[in-house]
Amino acid sequence: MDELKRPPLRERNRQAARGLILDAAERLLREDASADFSMRALAAEADVGFATPFNHFGNKNAIMQALSARLIDSMAERFRQRPPAAGPKAETAIGRVLVMGGIATGLLLEQPEVSKAVVGSLGVANQAPGAIRPHSGALWSLALGDHAGLAAAVRPAAERVLAGLLAFQFRGCVSFWIAGELQDAELGPAFATGASVLLLGFADRPQRTRLLEQIARAPGASRPAT
């Protein structure tokens, strides 16, 4: 039965070749995060023919797009494999989003220079739009799950727009990090604070209390008078 579910051999070979090329591109980025490698150097690093990267991706920018998509897929996979939530509150949409934020920023920080090169390449103008925005939106849809913990009155609106807004929030934090305006240690807390402010408008009453506590813990946040 498992054999019937496997992709055809030709597709498996195609996926394997793409994987070799993307792995080689990551190695080159670890050596020089400027992403100033040639397609010839990439083919040599991957031990494939010169035309193979062109045949599978078309150009270098598409390779960077594919690396970014693979990075997002790794975030999603780590989220799926995370340990069971500690208590029912953690399985609300808000808890899941905050967990995803920790996983996503943590993965970026494992190889910060490579991550900056990959994500930073998305800011380059292209003749054809990429597919990273919907891919990122799908990541935050996964985190939101069944939208538990969001107020019933605004849940339809949340289902339409919240994943996309979280994608924008995450990308904004990462952009400031790439520009050096957020330090490594600030990236995760910055996203958690921004996401909490965003989620506040959709949360039910118990979750609003949790979010306000999260915002109050943010660096530089004013504390209520006692």
In a few lines, what is going on in this structure?
The chain has helices at residues 2-5, 9-31, 39-46, 52-57, 60-80, 93-110, 112-120, 132-144, 155-178, 184-200, 205-216. With 226 residues, the chain is an all-alpha fold.
Q: How would you describe this structure in keywords?
A:
single chain; 226 residues; mainly alpha; 69% helix; 0% strand; disordered C terminus
Give a written overview of the molecule.
By secondary structure, this protein is mostly helical. It has a domain at 84-216. It is 69% helix and 0% strand. The model is unreliable at 221-226 (pLDDT under 50).
Write the layout of secondary structure elements.
Elements: H1 2-5, H2 9-31, H3 39-46, H4 52-57, H5 60-80, H6 93-110, H7 112-120, H8 132-144, H9 155-178, H10 184-200, H11 205-216
Helix pairs in contact: 2-3, 2-5, 5-6, 5-8, 6-10, 7-9, 8-9, 9-10, 10-11
How do the helices and strands follow one another from N- to C-terminus?
A: HHHHHHHHHHH
Uncertain stretches: 221-226
Mean pLDDT: 88
Helix percent band: 55-70%
Number of E strands: 0
Query: What general form does the structure show?
Result: elongated
**Proportion of residues in extended strands:** under 5%
**Largest sheet, strands/sense/barrel:** none
> End-to-end span in angstroms?
65 Å
CA radius of gyration is: 20 Å
Q: Figure out the total of helices.
A: 11
Q: Supply the helix-strand structural class.
A: mainly alpha
